[in-house]
Structures are given as C-alpha cells and as structure tokens.
Amino acid sequence: MSYSQNFQTLENSVIDFSDGIEKVSERIQNILTKTNAKGRRQYIRANLMHDKDAALFWNHGSKMHQLKLFDLSSVGMAVKIPAGLESLIIAKNYILQNVTLRLGTKQVVTEAVVFAVKKTEQGTIWVLLLAPQTSAAVKDEIRQYVFKTIEDKMILSINEERKDDTDYAQLDYYNFAAKTKSKSKPSTFSSQPGHNFS
Q: Which of 67, 83, 69 is nearest to 123 (CA)?
C-alpha cells in the first residue's frame, strides 16, 4: 500500500483522553499499525547541528580533534570532520579509539566504528556506530541526552505557537451553547407541535 493510499484511508476520529493513557496509547498504536505508519529509522535520533553543548573529541596520534556532531542516537552518530583530518585515509570499518562525547555537562568515553564516509556540501561526514562492547551505562547517557534534546525542542516549539486570544464570549454559537447547557429541561412551549424554534 502506497503512502497516498494510507493517507486516504486514515481514520478521522476523536480520542477521549479520559479513558486513561493506556487506552489512548493502544488506540494510537492500532491506528499506526492499521495504516502501516513506520519510518525507516529504527532508533530515535536527535539533530544536534545547532547544539553548542554537544561535541565529539577524538585523540589521534598526539593531537585531539573536535568533530561537529550532526545527529546522535544510542547506537551511533554522524559527524563533520575538520579540515585537518581530510588528508587521513579513513574507510568503512575503521575503528576510532579514545572517543569522548561531551553531552551537556557530562562526558562519556567510548570507541566508534566508521560505518560510512560521505562527501557533502557541508564537507566530509563520517557515520559512526558505537563499538559493540560499548557499556549499557554509556548508551543510557546518550539515550537520555537524545530524549532531553528532543523534548526541549518540542516544548520550545509549543511555547512559540501563537497564543489563542479569541474571545469566545463574543461568538454567538458559544453564547447559545452556554445558555442551552445551563437549562435543566427543554421549554414545554418550544416542544409543542408546529412551533418553529428561532
């Protein structure tokens, strides 16, 4: 089934949050399953292109190089290499030892394996995977930073939305709805046959 077919058959409905988070989650999951909605990415990634608090440092020879983090997940990352590393012949499966990730106020040390080398307009990009022996503690620190980054961006996006300053008291429909809701029972006059409600 194509994307356009999925989109056309997407259900239109209202989800009642008073049913509790488990029921709501189940309902959303059923809709996603039914429409075959899934991305190509298996792991959640955070875009760090504009994050000044995240960086990767690599000790190579007698020098420490800082690599710009483009994105990060609990299994790997994409980094832009500085001009000083362009001359190095780095290919797939090359192991980067002594890698330090600075994530906010925390640092983790690990090894990474070059999964791909890409030439882009921004420069040379290395796609790195964390070494198989990376500890669960290191992966957990990375995962927490990824989630926090995404959550912070989501909250920022929500807070920057235009405030709803509509004065609903000025709308006839809402005035009518408020009045009719306050009535305990319908008027006997308005229920008489032949009466036209206006």
A: 83
Q: What is the pLDDT of residue 78?
A: 92
pLDDT at 138: 93
Q: Classify residue 43 as exposed, middle or buried by CB count within 10 Å of its CB (0-12, 13-18, 19+).
A: exposed
Q: Which residues pair with 130 in a beta bridge?
A: 112
Highest mean pLDDT: which range of 41-50, 137-146, 168-177 = 137-146
What is the DSSP-derived secondary structure letter of residue 63? Answer: E
Closest of 40, 71, 41 to residue 54, by C-alpha: 71
Q: How many CB atoms lie within 10 A of CB 108?
A: 19
Distance from CA of residue 182 to its chain's centroid? 43
Q: Are 48 and 71 in contact (CB under 8 A)?
A: yes
- Rounded CA-CA distance 122/118 in Å is 10
CB 90 within 8 A of CB 134: no
pTM above 0.85, yes or no: no
Query: Which one-letter amino acid corresponds to residue 9?
Result: T
Decide: 108 and 101 in contact? Cβ < 8 Å.
Answer: yes
